[in-house]
Design goal:
The chain has about 400 residues and is α+β, with helices and mostly antiparallel strands. It is built from 19 helices and eleven strands. A six-stranded mixed sheet has the order 1-2-3-9-6-4. A three-stranded antiparallel sheet has the order 5-11-10. β2 and β3 form a beta hairpin. It is globular, with a radius of gyration of 21 Å.
């Protein structure tokens, strides 16, 4: 590394997240960090991060641009994050090719058409909750935040209902940074087993879904289509990114609104709308804290005189950047849904900006609107300090979100 400072070791349990983000910002625009034994440059300055995320001198292709790839992929618990073959790890023309094949599933027309189905799913979930005994404690991460996005992405991708629980378990493992390399390898094997089962079932009985369309493209377009590995890993990306991150945003939005009653009042009096609440949640507690990894294609001179040398790894520290005082001033650490500037990097930036962002926004806004309308007396069942974070330096959510629903409306 070009800097001589000792790397900051990132906590894999997520318990020190906010202190850690402040420490990263204290060291300037970029600082070396240790991620489960791998050293990378954490970038938390939003201006620099945006620049790097749009630079042709920064790649996501570890095989092509990270000399440590072959050695690291053998031992690193997060090997899947650098080894998959889909648009997440693609660079240049390969990225454009892979993204172009997936983009039609997330067109404005297709996403808008999903609104009624999302309303129906959320209403059904809330009907089930309303049937519970008054005063009963309910885990809204388990009972709302999980089932909504799983149902939506399951329908979009054509995942049979009987296969969805298996995907949930192994996808959760992808984001768990407390697993050993051996546990992670076993989880990856189970994940690929579930993906192959899905592919086999759709090859046998195609449907009107994105998985069937991608399989057809793979099997009929020998020149511009997907390889078998790209097909499998593209399905992995769409299913995992399509629900895990949305779960966290629903979780965090509910938690923040219940612990900031003044903000909830603004919503209920119509001074702001539910989309404002979604955007501020994405800024304040993004679904992904740190996203591994990118790589310097050439030496990159930083504004403070440091150099990210060619072949060195870069970590996008989105959560730390979102609360940077250079971006959001002295109120950066305040949850304020009425703030005029709600810009954030929760969905990334540049060519890798999340294709599913409009769908995620729609799901979260719908869930919040219908939940708080149905249960106006909703409250956390424990102090917020007792909520335990997920065991992850990547995924930003809670293990549970226990609430008391209170009286419900018809």
């Amino acid at each position: 590394m070009s800097s001589t400072t000792t790397p900051i070791t990132l906590d894999p349990t997520g318990f020190r997240a906010h202190d850690e983000h402040r420490e990263l910002r204290k060291h300037g625009s970029a600082v070396r960090v240790d991620i489960l034994g791998v050293t990378a440059w954490s970038v938390s300055d939003p201006a620099l991060l945006k620049e790097l995320l749009t630079s042709a001198n920064v790649s996501k292709d570890a095989r092509a641009h990270w000399p440590e790839f072959q050695e690291t992929v053998q031992r690193w618990p997060l090997a899947l994050w650098i080894a998959v073959e889909n648009m997440f790890t693609a660079f240049g023309a390969d990225h454009r090719r892979l993204r172009r094949m997936v983009a039609p599933a997330f067109s404005h027309r297709r996403i808008t058409a999903l609104q009624q189905n999302i309303d129906t799913i959320v209403t059904g979930i809330l009907d089930d909750l309303a049937a519970l005994a008054p005063g009963e404690t309910v885990d809204l991460r388990e009972r709302l935040a999980y089932p909504l996005p799983i149902a939506v992405i399951g329908d979009l991708m054509g995942v049979p209902a009987g296969q969805r629980d298996a995907f949930r378990q192994v996808v959760d493992g992808v984001f768990d940074t407390t697993l050993t390399a051996e546990q992670s390898e076993a989880n990856t094997a189970a994940l690929y087993g579930a993906l192959q089962k899905l592919i086999d079932s759709k090859r046998a009985e195609p449907g009107d879904d994105m998985t069937s369309l991608l399989i057809t493209s793979r099997d009929t377009d020998e020149e511009g289509g997907l390889s078998e590995d790209e097909l499998r890993d593209t399905l992995l990306l769409m299913i995992s990114a399509g629900y895990e991150t949305t779960v966290n945003v629903i979780d965090q939005a509910i938690t923040q609104l219940l612990t900031h009653p003044d903000q909830l009042t603004l919503l209920r009096t119509g001074k702001v709308d539910w989309n404002d609440a979604v955007e501020e949640t994405l800024r304040f507690e993004p679904a992904v804290r740190h996203l591994p990894l990118r790589y310097a294609v050439t030496d990159i001179e930083l504004p403070d005189g440091q150099t990210i040398a060619r072949g060195e790894a870069i970590l996008a520290s989105y959560a730390a950047a979102n609360r940077h005082p250079d971006w959001h001033g002295d109120s950066a650490d305040a949850f304020d849904i009425s703030r005029p500037l709600k810009e954030h990097l929760a969905f990334g930036h540049g060519v890798h900006f999340c294709l599913g962002a409009p769908l995620a926004r729609m799901e979260v806004a719908t869930a919040l609107r219908l939940l708080f309308d149905r249960f106006p007396d909703l409250e956390l069942a424990v102090p917020i300090e007792e909520l335990r974070p997920l065991g992850s330096l990547i995924s930003n959510g809670h293990q549970t979100v226990p609430v008391r629903l209170g009286r419900g409306t018809a």
